[in-house]
Amino acid sequence: SAPATVTDAPVDKAQKCNTEECQLPYCFCSKDGTQIPGGLEADKIPQMIMLTFDGAVNLNNYDHYSKIFNGKRKNPNGCNIRGTFFLSHEYSNYQQIQHLAYAGHEIATESISQQQGLQDKGYEEWVGEMIGMREILRHFSNVSVNDVVGMRAPFLKPGRNTQYKVIEDFGYIYDSSITVPPVPVPVWPYTLDYKISHECKSGTCPSKTFPGVWEVPLNTHYVEGFEGGHCPYLDQCVLHNLDENEVFEWLQEDFSRYYEQNKAPYMMPFHTNWFQTKALTNGLHKFLDWVLELPDVYALTVTQMLQYMTDPKELREITTIDAWKCDKSVAVAPKPCNIWNTCALPFKIPEQNITDTRYMETCRECPNVYPWLGDAGGTGISGRDNYIFSGPVQDADGENVDEN
């Protein structure tokens, strides 16, 4: 046969969506990304909302989060609304994170160090950042490794194929880092069996195929006339000059693009800084109170949303979705302690020859040093972590983890 020319695509380069081949529950794609799974009609399915929060959890934001998830806001099935936390390590309070996990919120990883430029780093760095963060959560918040199945790249800059290889190797189910440009009809989540159907804004999306790995993209938020600009994270739109009613109306208009069209899941991604402006905070509370009055709106974790997508059902069958029920415990960590340790720990600031003190709260015993890349347990032996991806879930010592 003729020698392969340079223009031949590599074997595993992702091809365009083939809806004949791509079947739920393992695969989902559509030509332009806007199709409803299962071929269902928009007026017959629930409108899912996912509240997501990025970065550290600590005294600066924990009370704000508690006010959103105040135990009074319920889904139509009577269960508490739940959110997803994409956590980074520095300044995080692991006792508070354990509270969130115990309340049934989803715990996901955004990296240990939030370093710039991770998208250009290699496999080891991605493992260190993401799997290291998962280990820190296991060590200090008692979060079971099997419950940490999602990741988000720092600054929404995916790590090309490298990041997705780590997702595959370490048993993650989804990534949520890819942004969709402002489009008239929002995009549903999809698996990476095929080529991404929309423009990749970051320029660092995967080019290969990663069968069965879900991408939960960040659709761009905007209103007609682009007042406040457009943004994947809600706090990146410029809404500071609005009062709380205008913020409420802005969110309503953005939401209606989903609700009145294809009911693609409405992700509401936040950083802490949204909650530092009163009008934004109050506007969000107004929006949540309004939207949860709608009979077909459910505020869920990302994993709950994906569990729906793998087996989509009409509204009349919603009560049969196990993942949405709350009759059994939804906790992903044991009940947190009432009296926790506040650990004052030495921290060698990376790339500077300075040792600083970092404070860390946890229900577990204090480690020797501040946990960091290569030393998730804070043993003080740097570079001791060795993550092995084959076989059962293992901890940093290569011991099989006995799940909580």
From TrEMBL:
GO terms for biological process: carbohydrate metabolic process. InterPro entries: CE4, Glyco_hydro/deAcase_b/a-brl. It comes from the Eukaryota. SUPFAM superfamilies: Glycoside hydrolase/deacetylase. CDD domains: CE4_CDA_like_1. GO terms for molecular function: hydrolase activity. PANTHER family: CHITIN DEACETYLASE-LIKE 4, PTHR45985. This is Chitin deacetylase. It comes from Glossina morsitans morsitans (Savannah tsetse fly).
